[in-house]
Amino acid sequence: MLVLGVESSCDETGLALYHSQRGLLSHALHSQVALHDAYGGVVPELASRDHIRRLLPLLHSTLQQAGVPLTDVDAVAYTEGPGLAGALLVGAGFGRSLAWALGLPSIGVHHLEGHLLSPLLAADAPAFPFIALLVSGGHTQLMQVDGVGRYRLLGETADDAAGEAFDKTAKLLGLPYPGGPALAALAEHGRDGRFVFPRPMLDSGNLDFSFSGLKTAVALSVRDCLLQSERDPTPDDRTLDDRTPDDRTLDDQIRADIALGFEQAAVAVLVAKTSTAMRESGLQRLVVAGGVGANKRLRAALNAAGARHGFALHYPPFEFCTDNGAMIALAGCLRLQAQQQQTTSAHSASSDSPAGFAIRPRWDLASLAPAAG
Question: b/e map of 247-264 (b: 16 or more CB within 10 Å)?
């Protein structure tokens, strides 16, 4: 079975071809980072319009890479949710219409299920069951994964996701969009121990997370450092009123120190909660998925925890940590292979009309039905 995957939930347009026997044949991705950079974050309307422009060229590129004609495709999988409503509509409309025109089945895929299953794209794909740490800009969850669609929520964030906290902290430090990678790069130059931030909910007795307080602690430190810099005399003895706004910014070393302190705190919480989940579950495999899963400090700390406690770690290839079409094609293929039959739009076969589809901007992953077979 050859499945075309379409991802358009936020600010990346991704297409891929996944074969049930041969694996991933090709994939193409367009990132909208440059488009949204001037606004410091994703503008939903601009994201939707850019998806419209990119889908057909990416389709041609994906087919060309694989060396197959469109007529060889057996099914189309598209992201049904969660995500930005307008962006989801573009991808879902494209995928459903293409499937209808070609007389193919189509399937709506849960975006987070794609992330959960993305390590199956790696050479050392994990076997079920496993624990999954899903850590991205929009979600931070610990899940027990017993099979396709068989997910049990163990813990999640009560407020900001880890990736969201990374981005917001980066903005406080004046870093460019996207903030998470920029903050991680800056943290490499930080001095250890200069800033020690709280580890939220580390002793909560459960597997839930909270990152808004950590972000607030960083904001207070930034404010205090700025106030201190204003009290210090300037090299040319100018008064405070004579300074320009640029004179009242943090120096690069302080910003690096704060970035390191934040990253250490966030990583410490993620690793501690994940290690507890592994111990309590008794499972020996951990999957790490989502954009923050590419963070080098997090990977090093999780690898060390795995070595200490005796569990194996599985990551998707770096290129599949962020949103991509390959994970959607894979998840759709696994669902279709299992011949999932449901009456809801979540995982039903295509209807007689291209208008017969739905999107779910909000969609609980734990609500998914298991795949049959």
Answer: eeebeeebbbbbbbbbbb
Q: Do domains 2-117+321-367 and 128-315 have the same CATH topology?
A: yes
φ and ψ at 18, to 5 degrees? -120, 130
Q: Which one-letter DSSP state was computed for residue 32?
A: -
2-117+321-367: CATH topology is Nucleotidyltransferase; domain 5 (3.30.420)
Question: CA-CA distances (angstroms) from residue 145 to 142, 206, 279, 366?
Answer: 10, 19, 15, 10
Q: What is the edge-to-edge ordering of all strands in the sheet holding 12-19?
A: 23-31, 12-19, 2-7, 75-81, 106-110
**Spatial strand order in the sheet of 130-135:** 150-156, 140-147, 130-135, 285-289, 312-314
How do the domains of the chain map onto residue ranges? 2-117+321-367, 128-315
pTM for the model stands at 0.87
Q: What is the CATH number of domain 128-315?
A: 3.30.420.40
225 Cβ partners below 8 Å, 6+ apart? Answer: 250, 254, 258
At 123, list the tokens: 């050479």
Residue 284 pLDDT more than 50?
yes
What the block records as the tokens of 13 is 């347009």
The answer to whether residues 93 and 353 touch, using CB atoms and an 8 Å cutoff, is no
* Burial (Cβ within 10 Å: 0-12, 13-18, ≥19) of residue 343: exposed
Per-residue pLDDT tens over the stretch 85-108: 999 999 999 999 999 999 999 999
> Distance between CA 360 and CA 20 in Å, rounded?
27
What single string gives the DSSP state of each residue in 85-118?
A: HHHHHHHHHHHHHHHHHHT--EEEEEHHHHHHHG
* 124-148 average pLDDT score: 94
Distances (CA, A) of 251 to 10, 179, 351: 34, 18, 59
Longest Cα separation, the chain: 76
